[in-house]
Amino acid sequence: MVLPYGRQSIDEGDVAAVVEALRSDWLTTGPEVDRFEAAIAARAGVEHAISVTSGTAALHVAYAAADLQPGDEVVTTPLTFVATAAGAALHGAKIVFADVDPVTGNLDPQAAEAAVTDRTRVVAGVDYAGVPVDAPALRDLASRKEILFLEDAAHSIGSTLDGVPVGALADITTYSFFPTKNMTTAEGGAVVTADATLAARARSFKNHGLVRDRALQRHPDEGPWHQEVHAFGLNYRLPDVLATLGTNQLARLDAFVARRAAVKALYDEAFAGIDELELPTAPAGAAPAWHLYPLRVPAERRRAIFESLREQGIGVQVNYIPAYWHPVFEDLGYQRGMCPVAEDYYRREISLPMFPDLTDADVERVVAAVRHAVATVR
């Protein structure tokens, strides 16, 4: 049996919550969405949470909330899933990639600052593997340059930095609730912020841009049914059925985070002292919810080690091809070599299985397979 690199953890409480929602009067845009958003906002330590249909939708919505316009620039990391950049590009923005910290894989604040121009509107960091970005440095950069600091926290709900939860570190933060993430709504995501203006823009964009408040309408006397669209949006509404799953999952998040930390500790202990391996670490003050275990191996042997692990039934993955290597960016003129630290990280990275339902025996199986691959594959 293949051991996956990530998977959801669903219990009977989750099943019961979904069944109850299915039997209710509301399948979507109902009370479970409100309850879920309130719980997410509380967990993030901010006032506003806007649930959406995916982590990608969350990014698209967050960039809309930032009022991103064609020709604006967004500085971000290439060591991420392409959605971090695509969400901004779909608004017409130019993506400017800056290199990463060689230890964490997170956006390097100094590289980000060097990439900022007078057209930059947003600096977007990604919490790679669950390790929070250097939020104080990026917030300071954003403040000095009068731009928005966005944190792509697809990997990191449940993480903290100096005791502050991810969600309260940036101007606006996005979560993903895909099944492999730290908690799930099957598909889903959220945008969280302390800023009421950003929240209002986000909520409008995720619901077609509809204006129902008579005080804001251009033609408020049309009738009680009347609603208007002042700016285009999309339908990114999360259904009640999925929201109630999310609320139940959120109640288990601390247990998920604790088990992920325990799995990481087992891996760290097993691989300590193997010179060919570089283990993931977090900076002082960071308490990650480890979404990935990004092991780094010699670049010239990475593919052979990866294939050996797959042959041994270990469902490893690589996270990520540098975003500008995708043909959609190549066709826009982006070239390999732009961010050498990120490219080196990619060439050596293998993500080992990491999810709460991994047993100690599963971890031992992974460890044995890695040791075998490193020792025998050349």
TrEMBL record:
InterPro entries, sorted: DegT/StrS_aminotransferase, PyrdxlP-dep_Trfase, PyrdxlP-dep_Trfase_major, PyrdxlP-dep_Trfase_small
Keyword ATP-binding part of the UniProt annotation: no
Pfam families attached to this UniProt entry: DegT_DnrJ_EryC1 (PF01041)
Catalytic machinery residues: 181
Domain of life, per lineage: Bacteria
Cofactor: pyridoxal 5'-phosphate
PANTHER family, per the entry: DTDP-4-AMINO-4,6-DIDEOXYGALACTOSE TRANSAMINASE (PTHR30244:SF34), TRANSAMINASE (PTHR30244)
Family: Belongs to the DegT/DnrJ/EryC1 family.
Name the UniProt record assigns to this protein: UDP-4-amino-4, 6-dideoxy-N-acetyl-beta-L-altrosamine transaminase
